[in-house]
Amino acid sequence: MPSTAPREVDLLIEARWVLPMSEGLPTLENHAVAMHEGRLLGPWPNAEAHRHVRPRRVLRLERHALLPGLINAHNHAGMSLMRGFADDLPLMTWLHEHIWPAEAAHVNPDFVAAGTRLACAEMLRGGTTTFADMYLAPEAVAEVVTHVGMRVQLCTPLIDFPTPWAADFVTGLAKTESLLERYRGHPRISLALGPHAPYTVSDDSLGRLRDARQRLALPIQMHVHETADEVEQGLAKDGKRPLTRLFDAGLLGPDFQAVHMTQVDDEDLAILRETDTRVVHCPQSNLKLASGFCPVARLLEAGITVALGTDGAASNNDLDMFDEIKCAALLAKGASGNAAALPAMAALAMATREGAKALGMGARIGQLRQGFEADVIAVDLERLNTLPVHHPASAVVYAMQSQQVSHVWIGGQPQLVDGEFQTLDIEAVIAATQRYQDAMATTRKQGKQ
Ligand SMILES: CSC[C@H]1O[C@@H](n2cnc3c(O)ncnc32)[C@H](O)[C@@H]1O
Ligand SMILES: [Zn+2]
Q1: Which residues are involved in binding substrate (predicted)?
Q2: Is 425 a domain residue?
């Protein structure tokens, strides 16, 4: 029983279930959380909440579970305009013969803004509130995200060859510094360095990256060990595996996010563990490009932090994190031959608490916990495909569809209410997408890419 009078708050949400996703905390039944000035209070049992808070508004969600907003730890949002553009190909053919020529032909800030708006709409509809983005024209992504109200880690695209964003690696670093100046202290936008992959970044550039990381105090996100070919070619060229090369370059650590990691031998595992490097698992992209399987169960057993990402819609082909969570759980079991590998709660944690930790935001988001940012989603579990609800986490991970997300708040701001978007003009998003679909089709017919 609190000794002080109940404090006034913006909103109280009373729910059938709350999955706080805090380590060791179980699913709570008939519990409530409150939001005030963008922060969370609670959770408390529904019957006790009014002893703690005097809400201006109360929302009763009697069929719903509340969860922290999902965290998509690896995306190329602008690539949503390339969904279905080049399917059923292995990574290098996909990149060299289709995606990179299309990027050279089409990508500019307007393309990236339109693709990012489409991506944000899809992510919000599916309960994602934070994403890490590595794509060309990050300034355009920042502007869209500022308007839409999502949270983003912008990984600036650093690569040794010219792109529509920067002529070379050094120019990319200089542009990163300008972006940092502009967005330093922004409540929802943070920056990271986004070197593309070991096979597109030279030793000289790795040295520049290490200096920039130290000077700017930014995390790094990079595609690493996406395929067995990448590792073999690294061994042939450098005499060591790419992860070892990054370790020798002094780059690994808790602020390094290694995306994919489908190839992990015992030495790689020891390096990841000893440096506390974070791994971002992208199971559907890895399956679709036949890149390999990230050994998630083995990584988690070794105490490595593993987040979950969709990768871009051009290799997934959607940005549905609930689908990704289910896929991760099933794949971990199938690949290890152990049905107990990656249980529902652990899979959900990868997309919430652990995702936040991997992005260096673990003290602010990823849990429904007093003082955390009010990034909250509600999912309606009273549907044919999720009833009966013996275990809410099981319903959410193994049976639910992302269309069951009914409400989304980010920093206390409503983004989706009863399935209706609050900040995005969906008609305009669809119209812009259609214009780029037509433009890309015309260029393709002309044989220009
Ligand atoms: C430097 S901006 C990002 C760059 O990465 C390309 N990309 C998208 N998906 C993948 C992937 O799975 N592996 C490697 N590279 C990828 C994208 O087309 C951009 O050019
Ligand atoms: Zn990627």
Answers
A1: 103, 196, 226, 311
A2: no
Residue 13 sits in a domain whose CATH number is 2.30.40.10
Residue 363 CB contacts under 8 Å (≥ 6 apart), including other chains:
none
Task: Look at residue 444 and tell me if it is in a domain.
Answer: no
Regarding whether 221 and 293 lie in a shared domain, the answer is yes
What the block records as the tokens of 105 is 């032909």
pLDDT of residue 5 exceeding 70, the answer is yes
Whether 146 and 184 map to the same domain: the answer is yes
Q: Provide CB contacts within 8 A for 187, sequence distance 6+.
A: 411
User: 413 with 316, same domain?
Assistant: no
Binding residues for Zn(2+): 74, 76, 223, 311
Q: What is the pTM of this model?
A: 0.98
pLDDT in tens, 352-390: 999 999 999 999 999 999 999 999 999 999 999 999 999
- Which tens digits make up the pLDDT trace of 50-81? 999 999 999 999 999 999 999 999 999 999 99
pLDDT band at residue 447 using 50, 70 and 90 as cut-offs: confident
Best residue for ligand 1 mutational test, from 196, 205, 222, 316 (most atoms within 8 Å of Cβ): 196
Residues in contact with ligand 1 (CB, 6 Å cut-off): 76, 91, 95, 99, 103, 134-136, 157, 159, 196-197, 223, 226, 285, 311-312, 315
Q: What is the pLDDT of residue 2?
A: 58
Q: Is residue 428 part of a domain?
A: no
Do residues 156 and 114 make contact, with C-beta atoms less than 8 angstroms apart?
no
Domains in the chain, number: 2
**Nearest residue to 218 (alpha-carbon basis) of 140, 280, 154:** 154
Quick one: pLDDT at residue 445?
81
pLDDT for position 313: 98
Binding residues: 74, 76, 103, 196, 223, 226, 311
Peptide bond preceding 316 in cis form (omega within 30 of 0): no
Query: Largest Cα–Cα distance of the chain, in whole Å?
Result: 74
pLDDT computed for residue 272 by the predictor: 98
162 CB-near residues (< 8 Å, 6+ apart): 168
Range of the domain at 301: 70-358
Residue 190, domain member (yes or no):
yes
Domain shared by 258 and 207, yes or no: yes
- How far, in Å, is the centroid of ligand 2 from the Cα of 43? 36
Binding residue numbers for substrate: 103, 196, 226, 311
